Amino acid sequence: MYTSKQMSSSATVALLTFSLLLITPQFAAGQEVKDHPLISRYPGSEFAYLPKSSVKEFDEIQLPVGPYKDGKIVKTERVEGKVSRLIYKNPRDRSTLEIFRNYQQALAKGGFQTLFTCSDRECGDASKGPLNEAVPDFGYWCVASSIQCPEPMRYIAAKLSRPAGDVVAAVKVRSEETYLVVVDVKPMQGGMVTVGAKEMAADISKSGHVSIYGIYFDTDKSVIKPESKQSIAEIAKLLNEQPSLRLHVVGHTDNAGVLGHNMTLSKQRAEAVVNALVNDHKIAASRLIANGVGPLAPVASNAAEEGRAKNRRVELVAQ
């Protein structure tokens, strides 16, 4: 799978690429399916089932990181980011063990730490459900309880930690195909959906307040990120369309960290929004009051990230 020439010890992150130059087949309507830049195919492999291979800029996946026991996988890990799902047809003259060991060794050479690995029946039992070929789950006829496959299925999940962003990979090798899933862990791109001035006005008229989720800050920071500009502009539009409207701008956080610090941080974030409206959009400062309540007014449970994300917000409250 790799040679000493391909792996440079001086490189910060080794590229797990093959020396074999391969022509990339077409996916659909001119869209190419490409090998992942960190983890390429085993030499001699070809793309299989192209419609089931895909790359999504942001998605989530539940990766098995524990054995299959008593009819279920005992442990999975949820990962979010850019998800690449690739399926390769194995060369006929290579065993699953040889292909798997090459991936296993290349991952280790590239700095990946093994999260879990298994083979044969420890990986699953197909009698419990069909294989989802886009995701490296375990069930397949190859390891069904009453059938011994001549080529045992083999699986590994591994993680690369790096400043540029973690990478999580899973490789499942069966008799005919190899399934590769690579997740470039990253936050969802913000600023894709915003609430307009019209919707803000309607909510304030109906309930006296509106929550804004399109204003972004780095963790533990109060500097507004550039992708927040459109939301700030819509707040300014609201204020310009309603000259008599005065607002409390209220910062909210989740409950992670110390309460006193979160109270201060939430107020600083509200003040940053007020300053942007005053300085960048010429809104009169007398129409705005900044304050912060930290985690004291949640709209969802802080027990899971989904709820914490809803609690981190800026709220506009009519004075």
Task: From the structure above, extract its key features.
319 residues; 60s Ribosomal Protein L30, Chain: A; 2 domains; 15 strands; disordered N terminus
Report what the structure shows.
The chain is α+β, with helices and mostly antiparallel strands. It folds into two domains: 160 residues, no CATH class; 122 residues, OmpA-like domain (60s Ribosomal Protein L30, Chain: A). It contains five helices and 15 strands. The strands form four sheets. Strands 3, 4, 7, 8, 9, 10 and 11 form a seven-stranded antiparallel β-sheet that branches. The chain has a four-stranded mixed β-sheet with strand order 12-15-13-14. A hairpin with a 6-residue loop joins β9 and β10. The longest helix is centred in the C-terminal third of the chain and has 23 residues. The protein is elongated.
Short recap of the structure:
This protein has 319 residues and is of the alpha+beta class. The chain has 2 domains: 26-185, no CATH class; 197-318, 60s Ribosomal Protein L30, Chain: A. Helices cover 21% and strands 27% of the residues.
